[in-house]
Structure formats: structure tokens, C-alpha cells
């Protein structure tokens, strides 16, 4: 039994390496410079039965339909390659030639692709209104199970996304995912992800690809905080922030870049920055410094990924304490110190942050989500930019 499960996981992983390429080739060009492709959702089948079917010359000749799937329009495309371990460019050429031949014969792209020794990829039925701005797009959010993460996830779902809400494994992520699934059945998964672990990051992306064939939007939201003056700061505590806020961002950016390159249809990365980048606070040095490094990685990514049609932008909120029933993990960490320093209770601290901005606005997870959606829906041709979500803080104005 263990051997079979291991084989199934291996097969699923191999299919997930090819799925983004297939998804990119099946996407329809729109003629819109801002949204150049309309993506498809791909269902993956890598069971022994599906692999056996995909490799059957007899079934291919008879244009039979894959056993685990429902028959849509037209016959499946069978690709009888043995070279799935070659460079992505070679695999793309094989698949592109096969799809082009299919289109020439049938007048449309295939709704299912049977890949020898890998399994079957089938275009799924859209579970959302195609008129929604992000319909059929797949988003992955790191550090999702908190106040900002909830606001962002909810906003993405409301706009049509399929969503991989990732966070550290445990009951918090499980209950968070369950709540989102009730909001959008069939469009939410909650793969555990530790952003400081390269393999965990890759596996989180793989789970989203296994579910829907690829990824279009990545929100780099995972982050932690520390309250400490520079003189007494524990170096290991600082390194913990560096691993999450900097290395975690780097690993997520790198994996997103790899997947977007495979898919070949561009993409969007939105990094959760902070007002502390342009306007750091005393005793908040570890957070301010590591988030500044994270922000700078985003700017560099905007330079490196633009040739691939990938836009990278930042959102810089001020204090967000909660959204719905979800509290901010960051403010659970730093709130007690801030309350002691100012002689305030929790409500008083929230009022303090509200009253210090020009608009006297309480910043919410929904506000942050709206900024994320501005970039994700490509309202302007923008990359490498930052939207402040802080009610107006003159000290945080870039200069």
C-alpha cells in the first residue's frame, strides 16, 4: 500500500511539472495588452488507470475518452512522448507541435491531453461567472490565515479566482480553509507551506498546480514581527524574522518565477510591504529592516520578470488589527508592547493608529485586498510600484 501511494505521489508530481506548459498552450489569446490570455482550469488525473489509458495506442487510435473524466467536445489529444525529463523548452516544443496539429485537424484546441507515462489533463468546467475579472485565474497566497490574508483571500474569491490559501500546517489553517470553502465551494484548497523551506514552498505550488493546472497570481503575504531595541535585540530572534520576511519572500518569488516561465502567459506578484519601509519605528528595527529587504526583492523581481510578462508590485498597509473574526498575528505579537508604551488598552491602541493618519481611517483587511485587486486586475500598466494603504501618513510618503 505504501509503495502504491508513493508511486501515485511521484506520478502526480511529474504531471504537475508539465501541466503549466499545457495550460499556457491551451490559454486563449484575447488581444488585450493588459490581459493577453484567458486561462483554462486543468483537472489532473495521474492514477495508474489514467496513466495506462494515456499510454494506450489502441485507445488513441480509436479516439477513446479517458476513463476518469467526463466527455466534453471533441476527441482527446494523445502525446506519445518518452522525453518528459528534457528541458522545458523542448517539452514545450513537443506539446506545441502536437496541439498545432490537433487544431489543424479539428479546428479547435483539445479539451483533454493524454500524456504517455504521466496521465491526463482535462479542461474543467468553470465554477465561476466568466465575466468576473479574475474568472479561471489561480491565486496562491502565503501566510493567508490572518487578518490581511483573510481580506485578500475573500477579495480574490469574490472576483472569480481559484485559491490556494497557504500557511503553516495546523488547525488554524484547516479552519481558515474550511471557512473559505463555504464561501466558494470547489475553488479553495489549503496546502500547508513553510516559506522558509524551499521544498515546502515548491510542494505548496505543486498542490495548486495539481488542483487547477497552473498559477496566475501570487500574493507574498507571510511575515512576522519583533519588538526590541537594537541594543538588547537577540540575534537569533532577528534571524528568525530574516528567515521568514526575507528568505521566505525570496523562495516564494523564485518558485513563482519558475512556474510563470513554464506557463508562458505572464502573471502577477503582489508583495505585502509595510509603511515601516519608508517610515520605520523605534523598537521595530528587525521588522522594518527585514521588510525593507523584502520590498527591495520585489523591486528587483519587477526588473527581472517583466520580459516574461510578469508584473510585480507592492502594497504597504499601516496597522490592520483584524478582519471579520480573524486577528492579526503580527499585532498579537507587537500589540502588548505598544499598549504598554502608550498606556492604552486594545481598543485605545486601534483608535491611536486611526487618529494618527490624515483621513482618520481605520485600515482593514478589505482595504488591503482592494489594493491587491487593483494590481491583480491590471487596472493600469504598472510594475515595480507601491500602493500605500494607511489613511495618509506624511512621514511614510516616499522620498
Core attributes:
single chain, 399 residues, alpha/beta, Rossmann fold, 2 domains, seven-stranded parallel beta sheet, four-stranded mixed beta sheet, 12 helices, elongated, disordered N terminus
Please explain how this structure is put together:
The chain has 399 residues and is α/β, with parallel strands linked by helices. The protein folds into two domains: 2-123, no CATH class; 138-396, NAD(P)-binding Rossmann-like Domain (Rossmann fold, 3-Layer(aba) Sandwich), CATH 3.40.50. The chain has helices at 2-26, 48-54, 57-61, 88-106, 147-158, 171-183, 198-212, 235-263, 285-305, 329-342, 346-355, 365-376, and strands at 28-29, 37-38, 42-45, 77-79, 112-115, 119-123, 138-141, 162-165, 188-189, 217-220, 267-272, 310-317, 322-323, 326-327, 386-389. The chain has a seven-stranded parallel sheet with strand order 9-8-7-10-11-12-15, with helices on both faces. Mean pLDDT is 92; it is low at 1-7.
Put the structure in a nutshell.
The chain has 399 residues and is an alpha/beta fold. The protein has 2 domains: 2-123, no CATH class; 138-396, Rossmann fold (3-Layer(aba) Sandwich).
